Amino acid sequence: MKKINLLFVFILSFNFIIAQSINKFDKSVTSKAGSLVISPLYLNFGNVPIGEISIEKSCSVGGTYLVADVMVTVGSGFLLTSNSGQDYNDTIYLTPTEGFINTSVFVIFQPGFPQMYTGLVKFESPDVSNKLVTVFGVGLDSTLPTITASPFYFNFGDVQINESSEVQSYILTGANLTEDIVVTAPVDFMVSLSPEADFLNSITVPQIDGSVETVVFVKFMPTFVQAYASVISNVSLGAAVVNVGVIGNCIDIYAPTLVADPLFLNFGNVSLGVSSTPQQYLLTGLNISEFVEIIAPVGFEISSDGLNYSSSVYLEPTFGLLEATVYVAFLPEFEQLYTGVISNTTGLVVTNIPVTGIGTTSTNFTVNFRVTDQELLPIAGAQVTLGSFADVTNNNGVINFPNIEIGTHQYSIAFGDYETILGSIDVVDQDVSLDISFMPNSIENFKSKNINIYPNPTSGKFTINTPNFSEKYLSVKICDFSGKIIIDQKLTHSDFNEIDLSDCNKGIYFIQILNANKSYSSKLIIQ
Questions:
Q1: What fold characterizes domain 447-526?
Q2: In terms of Cα–Cα distance, which of 182, 187, 297, 306 is closest to 233?
Q3: Would you call the peptide bond into 467 cis, given omega within 30 degrees of 0 as the criterion?
Q4: Cβ-based neighbours of 24, under 8 Å, separated by 6 or more
Q5: Higher-confidence residue: 57 or 50?
Q6: Which residue of 257, 361, 506, 517 has the smallest Cβ count within 10 Å?
Q7: pLDDT tens-digit profile of 58-100?
């Protein structure tokens, strides 16, 4: 009897241990943060007659470590399903398998009224941030007068003051019309029904049996030095007004000019309350007689020195010239998309730099690689591995890895006969971008041009001596051992060029001197 009792106690103890282990395992799985990824985030169904059903559109849904179903809802005028072509409703549920989802949601547009419809497809699940997809469509009454124009946007670029641009055109159509279409251009734009006829501020397009199908020709003839942005209106009684956007820039060779490069800054995802890694643009100006005022939109800050950031900065020209680097940081306060422009203004001249970023509470971010050769030309087909992910660069030398968790991740980049680049990247609170440049395997070719670097090894400061180059300007590029570009700038003195890398870590660096025809490479050791 005692043996049986001991065996019974042993079995109970063993079962208790197994149950505790399973419970700990379940907790370790479910304790991981769930996530949802939806793509794309915008569906446009265009024009659909009232009572008819649009072509089906879809978005992909990926989910990890989900603890419950995902409820998907959509607004009035739209229906959705997880089974293509059937079972449409305004609410559906996606059930994860062992916490994971990999499926698609299909959406149709069925307008009931002649109006514009905008709505949201909303994805909700406990312990996961809600995801939204914007849906858009227009309900048309086939018996009502309608006007269409294609294309609906023109950019005339730079045009000299009081001169005429090249002619552009759009196709204008109408149906069920009861009146002619009146086409009216904004100030300093002109329209015509023939490229050879007179261009006027306004023309009338006659309808025949309620229909119109013609070509409207457009010219830009600026009279003021400024940027132009407006619309050409196309109007007929009973039909919705159709606008064709037109923009252009009037220039004067003697007038002040401001040029910014690059023309757009995208900060990607940044955690709330965190200041992003700064980006920058180069602002240059000619014939500048006043201070240049730079103003950042909400959520962004700017600096002229990369240290002191504020909402506005003033730059002073020197003898009418301006060349300055403007540093920009993104500091989101709310979980939303931020868009705006940084205005650069002097007198009547304004140059805008569009900026965008997303404030997020997500713990997953995107890592972007841009891979180039020693001439800074993009490399297509480079094999990039980031942790357990691998892919190849596109024709622009770029590859993006989305949904990378916070932490330190190892990467490797291989291509052709180049030495494989190894490194690591820290993902903390925002998307990360790396510019990686392959350097030549040869390190002896500095001698062929009698290029000297001293001291080498160095504690950080060193001099580059380039006595045998006739060019006024050379370029120097310095990369660390992982291929990350540390310096990319011009050498303006042919004999002695001092460079300071005191803030860089100890190790081996690659230096490349480039002129119009060749590049010369060597190693630098910081100790």
A1: Immunoglobulin-like (2.60.40)
A2: 182
A3: no
A4: none
A5: 57
A6: 517
A7: 999 999 999 999 999 999 999 999 999 999 999 999 999 999 9
At 227, the amino acid letter reads A
User: What average pLDDT does this structure show over 405-419?
Assistant: 87
262 preceded by a cis bond (ω within 30 of 0): yes
Topology at the third CATH level for domain 257-360: Immunoglobulin-like (2.60.40)
Q: Which of 63-77, 141-155, 320-334, 509-523 has the lowest mean pLDDT?
A: 509-523
pLDDT band at 251 (very low <50, low <70, confident <90, very high): confident
DSSP string, 244-259: EEEEEEEE-TTS-EEE
For residue 505, what are its two tokens?
């870590």
Q: Rounded to an integer, what distance in angstroms lies between the CA atom of residue 376 and that of residue 477?
A: 10
pLDDT recorded at residue 527: 80
* Residue 251 to residue 349: CA distance in whole angstroms: 10
Q: DSSP string covering 377-403, please?
A: -B-TT-EEEETTEEEE--TTSEEEEEE
Instruction: Find out whether 105 and 82 touch, Cβ atoms under 8 Å.
Output: yes
CA distance linking residue 11 with residue 467, whole number of Å:
87
CATH top-level class of 35-140: mainly beta
| pLDDT band with cut points at 50, 70 and 90 for residue 493 | low
401, 367 Cβ separation under 8 angstroms: yes
The dihedrals phi and psi of 502, each to the nearest 5 degrees, come to: -60, -25
Taking the C-alpha atoms of residue 232 and residue 238, their distance in angstroms, rounded to an integer, is 18
- Is the per-residue pLDDT at 150 higher than 90? no
**Confidence grade of residue 229 (pLDDT, cut at 50, 70, 90):** very high
Instruction: Using the structure block, give the residue that is written with the tokens 């849904």.
Output: 61
The total of other beta-carbon atoms located within 10 Å of residue 451's CB is 20
Is 70 exceeded by the pLDDT of residue 105?
A: yes
Place 419 in a pLDDT band, splitting at 50, 70 and 90: confident
Structure confidence by residue, pLDDT tens digits, 289-302: 899 999 999 999 99
In the block, residue with structure tokens 């019974």: 8
Look up residue 91 and give its two tokens.
């609410």
Residue at 456: amino acid letter = N
For residue 198, which amino acid is it?
D
Domains 146-251 and 257-360 equal at CATH topology level: yes
Q: Which CATH architecture has domain 364-437?
A: Sandwich (2.60)
Closest CA relative to residue 426, chosen from 351, 513, 365, 471: 365
The token pair at 494 is 């042919």
Which has the closest alpha carbon to 423: 405, 432, 436, 433? 436
For residue 286, the SS3 value is strand
CA–CA separation, 482 vs 526, rounded Å? 15
| The pair of three-digit structure tokens given for residue 99, joined into one six-digit string | 């916490």
Locate the domains of the chain by residue range.
35-140, 146-251, 257-360, 364-437, 447-526
